[in-house]
Amino acid sequence: MNQEKSEFKLIEWISRNRPPAGDDVLTDIGDDMAILRTGGDKILITTDILLEGVHFDLDTATLAQVGYKAMACSLSDCAAMAAIPFVAVVAVALPNRMSMSQAQQLHQGLQSAAVNYHCPIVGGDTTSWDNPLAIDIAMLAKPGKTDPVLRSGAQIGDIVLVTGRLGGSLLSGRHLDFTPRVAEAQLLTSLATIHAMIDISDGLSSDLNHICLSSDVAAVIDEEALPLSSTALESADPLYAALADGEDFELLFCVKPADAEKLLRDWPAKSPLEVTRIGEIVPCEKTDLPRMFLRNSAGRLTLLPPGGWEHFRD
Amino acid sequence: MNQEKSEFKLIEWISRNRPPAGDDVLTDIGDDMAILRTGGDKILITTDILLEGVHFDLDTATLAQVGYKAMACSLSDCAAMAAIPFVAVVAVALPNRMSMSQAQQLHQGLQSAAVNYHCPIVGGDTTSWDNPLAIDIAMLAKPGKTDPVLRSGAQIGDIVLVTGRLGGSLLSGRHLDFTPRVAEAQLLTSLATIHAMIDISDGLSSDLNHICLSSDVAAVIDEEALPLSSTALESADPLYAALADGEDFELLFCVKPADAEKLLRDWPAKSPLEVTRIGEIVPCEKTDLPRMFLRNSAGRLTLLPPGGWEHFRD
What we know:
- The structure is a homodimer.
- Chain A is of the alpha+beta class.
- Chain A folds into two domains: about 20-145, CATH 3.30.1330.10; about 160-305, Phosphoribosyl-aminoimidazole Synthetase, Chain A, domain 2.
- Chain A is about 30% helix and about 25% strand.
- The first copy, chain A, contains nine helices and 13 strands.
- Chains A and B meet through helix 1, strand 2, strand 3, strand 4 and helix 3 of A and helix 1, strand 2, strand 3, strand 4 and helix 3 of B.
């Protein structure tokens, strides 16, 4: 085999070559969490592995921050499905050089997120090796007041919205202490029917592309509408920062136009979190055509290639 | 803080310092799987991380074998609870040097176990870095025909039994292609009431110690009764191999004497797997006294310290 190497191509290959999963697996590979049926209930599961030197750097992050971030990434997956975090299990590969006290600091960070988001850590695996720190969180969630929201439900004509401000998360350190939008997702689903949702981990353009591919639609983003973080505004290319920096862990979602109006009207004025309309869903006539476009203030469209972080590339 | 460094001391510290987990968490840290209540049902969860250079070596194992082993370790946890594997999620940290084809071989190994044990892989996380391979499996299981079997139920007077033959798993390569005792655990629970069970991952003496501590009992093992693998028999110290080598992934369990007799009588003669009585559970009068003893053919007792593998030691 001599194939182009890419995280997304590998996931596509795995997805294409997987055996049938059975009736109790309602949604599997290809969303923020898998959805399972257990008895009369639904349960959701996700796993995320964080690696030293890739997702965090121990020169700039404390071990407590790393523990918090590991849990927060999975909590953000729950938010993306509008699900309620239930429990987590934690597996760590500790560097042998680490002290007992350092391992405890890591766990204090994990526990701070577990307590704040009512998602107890119910088990784990502690290993060690002569290599950098790796932490895996597997998290279970239960549906909130609505059915879990998938990536695949975007409809032509939908409005695309985003919570918060984008870009510069790695530079500002926000990726270490961000707020997973668990409560905000519940508020969103109480105000409107969310057709499709994802959390922005790889970068807006990359994650919007996931929605477009899953929903078989295209999207137009108004570049002047993008809510830029202060760090993005200070950067050399604020627009690129908002589109491709990643690790914003904000929610990107699609609703029909009337619901978008209602949502923007009813969103609590007191909320410290903004919700911003950034574009719309349009048809995609051929599956191999580009699916994302940027529109400038003059209404001119340019292609928006999926950018942001991708693992496992040459 | 200046504390002795040890995997088990760290787990003890985590266990002591964890916040309350809530009513839906029936069993958490300290068994092979956590047991959760979802609606009227119970669901179990475990996580295991396998590390290159610690749990496998790519000079002697193929990537397909590594994938199989990663799944099989978690399947063995399900067996230890007498639970039925349900679904798995897989997170991998791939070395950047690895090719697309190599990543696919790893997944073929994972899938072979998933298919054989009816435990579909429903999601995952694919990352990469300039360090060795790490694979985490989080697995869900459902109770079998009986309630899940804990480590904590051993009673004084119980007989200690073990499936299969012990020792030399790493040397013989059996740790790469062992059979998780999922079906055998169901057969065991259909033949007798299992008071306590664990799978032998760290080594018989280490895992028996977990049962003794969880159940607050002690144990006497008859050294001549231990079923030795052919690799253990060929080693310099066959007894030590059986007690401490680890990665046998056999079941170690306790039943009352009448059930042990019934079980040994009713165990299918045609089964390729042996079940052997290796000792008994005795009282432990003070919690800080040794909990395990070896008995030789003359009936003389010597202390059996918990041996086997432990992570995160200086």
